[in-house]
Specification:
Blueprint lengths: L4 H16 L3 E7 L9 E7 L2 H18 L7 E3 L6 E5 L3 E7 H7 L2 H4 L4 E2 L7 H4 L6 E2 L3
Parallel strand pairs: 2-5, 6-7
Antiparallel strand pairs: 1-2, 3-4, 4-5
Helix pairs in contact: 1-2
Amino acid sequence: MAALQSSIDALRLAAAAADRIKATDIVAFDVTGPVGITDAMLMATASSERQVLAVAEEIERELYAKCNKLEPLGREGLSEARWVLLDYGDFLIHVMHEEERLYYDIEQLWQDCPRIGLQLPTTPEVATAATDSTIGQN
């Protein structure tokens, strides 16, 4: 079973919002295989606490505006602004300060999961041909 197309579409909007606020290392994984409670997750890096909050807020605005007023079911980490988790049920969004992203290296948990093509101009998988491990390239 693969991630729902609605989750992939929402993650692409979230990735574009993060990219506009200059987040880096934006990646998404289809985690339907190892995780039964969510379809996918997106990770983005910010260089300061202020940027972490700005990225998270922009993602929330974008998904609310373009996904039928979609709001997160939960938010974590807003007060410290080092690692903000936005839980949308079918997908999760992690906006992490670069130090936390390096320290926790949560991508290692999902390295065997297929990456979701985010269709960003700065995303390497868009510039190259799709591979078998990249899904959602339309």
